[in-house]
Amino acid sequence: METISTPATEPKQGRPRDPSRDDAIIDAAIGTLIREGYDRMSIEGVATAAGVGKATVYRRWNSKAELVVDAMATLKPSVDTIDTGSLDGDIDLMIAVSCSPHSERLLQVMVSICSALPREPELLEAFRTRFTAPRIARISGILERAVARGELDHDIDIAMAASLMPSLMLQRVLTTGQPAGRAYAQQVVGSVLLPVLGRPARTFSNTDTETPQ
After folding, report:
1. Orientation angle between helical segments 158-176 and 87-98, nearest 10 degrees
2. Which of 10, 11, 116, 166 has CB 3.0 to 4.6 Å from 135, enough for a Cys bridge?
3. Please, is 7 exposed, middle or buried when counting C-beta atoms within 10 Å of its C-beta (0-12, 13-18, 19+)?
4. What is the value of pTM for the model shown?
5. In the predicted model, is pLDDT for residue 161 greater than 80?
6. Compositionally biased, Basic and acidic residues: which spans (predicted)?
């Protein structure tokens, strides 16, 4: 009887994953983004910073954009929900969280990729889902709960109001190159956000201007 040979099973194609190397590469990518910006960032530079070969990076990510999108996916807000039970308490905590070292690092990453967003649809989508949308959703939640408690009128434009602080904080960094800082966040809230919400403008005390560690 004739023996029919069958071809050997092809090895499954896939990106080998070593968690320790992945973490090192992601950390290096984030650090390189902050230092050099997206346009100057290179796979070679990330590999050097991570202490791995360029081929090791390319086996995991096919392009710089793909690496950056994965790096962005690891960056999470330090606080998902702010709910102290009052609008004033929520606003004070929102300012503190927005100016924490963790949030300032996220803002630096946002700034580093802004120049590439018009030509990188994948980055633009990740920017929206990882940075813009969560911040606006968190502030929207604060305002919706304040409306439900009767602290704000039902006719306020929550979507517009919720976008003010994230937009102005990012614009401040883009135009000055410096961290927005707690004093600026307080100015935005006291002079812009509160009046938009139909509340009196508020001046924060000088003792509240230091960024929490």
Report:
1. 30
2. 166
3. exposed
4. 0.77
5. yes
6. 12-22
